[in-house]
Amino acid sequence: MVTVEEQQLTDALTAKSTRTIVLVDVDGTQQEIKQTVRFQRSKVPTADGQVTYSQWVIQPDSPKEWAEFDAPEIKGCAPDRAFLPSEQVNAWTPDSKIVIVYNK
Question: Residues in domain Mub B2-like (predicted)?
């Protein structure tokens, strides 16, 4: 069974994959950092009137991956996760949300 989202991506010429990093400090204040990789492809008409698509490629002005991330230092506090590694993604990679909480 194909979901609506999968069908939309199947027919799309652009796609993106976003990692949202949410920093939560000790008083509950939140800051979001978004890392987005954008993709594109082309429609290619065939001789029999059908349409095929080229392979997904990363857009020229887009980052090539979700970059590694070092949680910023907050004096007197420690993040529950200090480091996120870089990650290769593709047009089918679902969005990701990571919450980093600071504690005293």
Answer: 11-104
